[in-house]
Every structure is written in C-alpha cells, then in structure tokens.
Write a structure and sequence with these properties.
By secondary structure, the protein is an alpha/beta fold. It contains 14 helices and 18 strands. The N and C termini lie far apart (about 45 Å). The protein binds zinc ion.
C-alpha cells in the first residue's frame, strides 16, 4: 500500500476541492515525503509503477477534514443538561470542569482525537479555557495526546477572568487573573507555536466569550497575538442570552462589541455566529474574519441556525466545527457536513447549501480559518498529504449515484486517513492507539470528574 513514505491512490473518485472544484471519477493521487506530488485523471504516473497502492473503485478521496472549533476536555462530561440552554448547560457543568487535571484531560483528549481521526479529521483546533488553580500543565497534556494520535493540532490557549462575583457567568473557582492569563499565553506561544509550513502544532489565543472575559483581557490578548504572529479565536453571537448580556452590559450587539475591541480581521476566527445582523455579516466578510460553523452543537442547545449561505455569499471564510463534546455527544467530524446541509435547508430551502459547499467548508474553509490554506484544505501538488479515503460501495453507500453525495447526504465509512503522508487510519482501523483502551480510560476519567469512586 505504501512504502518509504510514498502514498499511491488509484482508480478512485478524487474530489480535490481546488479552486475549480476539479474531480476525477477514476483518478489518482500520489504523495511523497509528506506532500502531494500528483493528482489527476487515469492511472498514477509511470514512475510510481513499482510502488504499492490503494485501489478503488468504490473509494472516494478527499482532503482531510479540518475541525475549526472544539473543547476536547468535554469528552468526559457528555450527557449532562441535555435539555437546557447554553447558559443553563454551562452553569450545570462548570462545577465538574473545576475538577479538571492533566490526567483527566489527557484521557479525554486522546479518546476524542482518536474519534475525530476515525471520522475523517486530519487537523483539529481546540479551544481550552478551563484552567483550575493547581490543575497542572493542561495545554501540554493535550498537545501530547494529539502527538500520540497523530493529528495536526491547533490548540488555543483560552481563558476566563470574569467570574460571577464580577458579573460574569462562570463561578470564581474556574477563572484566572488577567495577568496570569497573559503570562500563560506568552508561555504557550514560546513553548509550542511552530510557524513552519508543515507545522503539526500551532497556538492561537482564545479568551472564551463576552460573558466570561473582560474587555481589557480581550484587547490585551489581541495585542499579544499580533505581536507574536499567532491567530485569535473566541465564541461570538451563539445565543439570544449572549446578545441580551452584551446589550445590558455594553449597549452593543456581540459583533459591535468585538469590533470595538479590535477583534475583526483576517487573523481572527469566531465560533458560532448564529445571531448576526446583515450589517454584522458584511463587517465579518469585509474584514476577512473566519467563522467556525457548529450546526450540531447549535441544534443540541437549541441556539438557532447560523446564516451560513449569507456569510458564504458575502465572501467570509466559513469552516465547520464539532464544538465541545458536552454539546455534541456524537463528536463525528463527517457528521458535521450532513448536519450543516440539513440545518441550512431547514432555514433556507433546498438551494441553501450543496453537498460540495459542505465539503469545501470542511476542508478549504477550515484551512482558511486556521491560516493554513497555503498548505492544507485541497488535494493539489505541493500541499501537505493530509488525505481522507472513504468507502462509497459498502452496504450504506453502494448505489448512491454521486460519491460526494454519498459523503454528505449518506452515511460514509472512513477507510484510510493520512496526516503528512503517515497512516493514522488504515482499513478502517486506528493505527496509532488502541480504541478499546482509550474508551476504558475515558470512562474512568468521566467517573472521576463526576466525583464518583473509581
Ligand atoms: Zn465552543
């Protein structure tokens, strides 16, 4: 199948997601030394005749999926507050999250990242914002988990510094001081951020939300990120409750508030953006600000349906995210394409999104949000060999007329996953870790964070 770092795929339906949307129904894709060297119709070039290969037909090849919003630690707090709003759900969960430590996060992150890999994700961001006092080096714990599973990883050093005693939503037990956050952000960048084109780890700064962070910290994180050349991420305009909070506290909409703080720009991507005015959509697009669309989480919490068609039409970069697993128990990256399609059509009719729109958001759109579109997001010579191979001819998919339709409308099964040309999933099985062992560890960690004896 592969030898000396060479990957040859042949007689597959190759959906490149290049600028023209090129697809090769019986095409090839070749990668060497971590990067794609050939993609096109027909057999692989003759110089690769001696290499082992993966052959279709019945296989669909796409760029690896990019997850633009997540909270990995939540894998061990799934199934709580299942019928509540965002604010009610958060208030239920904050006391559990206050027990987080490095061991618990390591188990949660490894299980969660393994599941992301098995559902087609090659690059995941993470927004970690819960740093209880004395919890240990949580960022290091999740970076080590990502290296173990083998995914490309963009952790953001999140933060909360507006506790309940100061008018914020979270209890004081899970917030940090302004100065401690800035020092930790600086340290995270210095220790972990890799600006190189093939980076496996990149840091972003991500104060959590308007209702858990002060305006001063938002401004100072933006200044630090821009000084260091890293990206900015936060939650915005997720619910009507948040809009009411911003109106009462700042006299602004969430989008107006964040623009006042210097938080719109091509180095920023925002999670959710469900409740936006037409003017806000225009400002987000005009500034090149990215949006992480999380339709399953928005549905799970009853938050609403984001105006994705309008954002795309205005030219905003839009990616997809599974969001934290406590508000998306399924955590399936490929499922987010299906959900995005349905959510857009519930609101906007059958033309609101196409299957190929969803595939583009989950790949190039995500790469743009993370600032990686020069190296990720499409299958073109020169790009990193982050590749998902899906089975389209099994019991679930056989006979569906269009392979990309199988991927988004149907129930596809991942066959192979490569990150930088390295196999992470092969023949449908995770090759970097033992899923059964990860599940046992996650169950034990779930009991511990719930305060149960183990
Ligand atoms: Zn989130």
């Amino acid at each position: 199948m592969t030898g000396s770092g060479t990957v040859v795929l042949e007689d597959c339906h190759v959906a490149t997601v290049d600028a023209a949307g090129s697809e090769y129904p019986a095409g090839h894709l070749v990668a060497e030394q971590g990067r794609i060297v050939a993609a096109g119709p027909g057999p692989a070039p003759p110089e690769y005749a001696a290499a082992g290969r993966i052959r279709g037909p019945g296989l669909l090849v796409t760029p690896g999926l990019v997850n633009t919003h997540h909270h990995l630690y939540q894998w061990i707090t799934r199934g709580y507050a299942t019928d509540d709003t965002l604010f009610g759900w958060l208030t239920t969960l904050y006391p559990l999250w206050a027990r987080l430590g490095t061991d618990l996060l390591a188990d949660a992150a490894a299980a969660n990242l393994a599941w992301l890999a098995l559902t087609g994700c090659t690059t995941s961001s993470d927004h970690h914002y819960v740093f209880p006092a004395g919890a240990g080096d949580l960022l290091e714990a999740e970076i080590h988990a990502a290296r173990r599973v083998g995914l490309r990883f963009h952790p953001s050093r999140g933060s909360m510094n507006l506790g309940a005693s100061a008018g914020g939503l979270p209890p004081d037990s899970v917030v940090e001081s302004h100065d401690a956050v800035l020092a930790a952000c600086q340290d995270a960048i210095d220790r972990w951020h890799d600006p190189s084109p093939g980076a496996m780890t990149r840091i972003a700064l991500a104060p959590c939300s308007p209702f858990s962070v002060t305006a001063e910290l938002m401004r100072d994180c933006a200044a630090l990120a821009r000084d260091k050349g890293v990206r900015l991420h936060t939650h915005l305009a997720e619910t009507r409750d948040e809009a009411q909070f911003c109106r009462e506290r700042f006299g602004r909409t969430p989008a107006e508030y964040i623009e006042d703080l210097g938080w719109l720009g091509p180095d920023v991507w925002l999670a959710h953006c469900v409740h936006l005015s037409g003017a806000a959509i225009g400002r987000i697009a005009a500034t090149g600000t990215g949006v992480a669309h999380c339709p399953t989480s928005n549905g799970r919490l009853g938050s609403g349906i984001a105006p994705v068609r309008a954002l795309l039409d205005a030219g905003a970069p839009v990616g997809l995210g599974v969001d934290g697993s406590a508000s998306n128990e399924s955590g399936r990256m490929i499922g987010e394409l299906h959900q995005a399609l349905l959510a857009a059509r519930y609101a906007g009719g059958p033309l609101a999104l196409t299957a190929r729109d969803c595939l583009r958001m989950a790949t190039m759109g995500g790469a743009r949000c993370l600032g990686r579109d020069a190296d990720l997001g499409s299958l073109e010579p020169g790009k990193l060999a982050d590749i998902a191979v899906w089975r389209a001819d099994d019991l679930a998919g056989a006979g569906i007329a269009d392979p990309v339709c199988t991927l988004v409308f149907g129930a596809p099964r991942l066959e192979h996953l490569f990150v930088g040309g390295q196999p992470v999933v092969a023949d449908g099985e995770l090759r970097t870790a033992d899923p059964a062992g990860l599940a046992v560890a996650a169950a034990r960690a779930s009991a511990r964070i719930a305060g149960q004896p183990t």
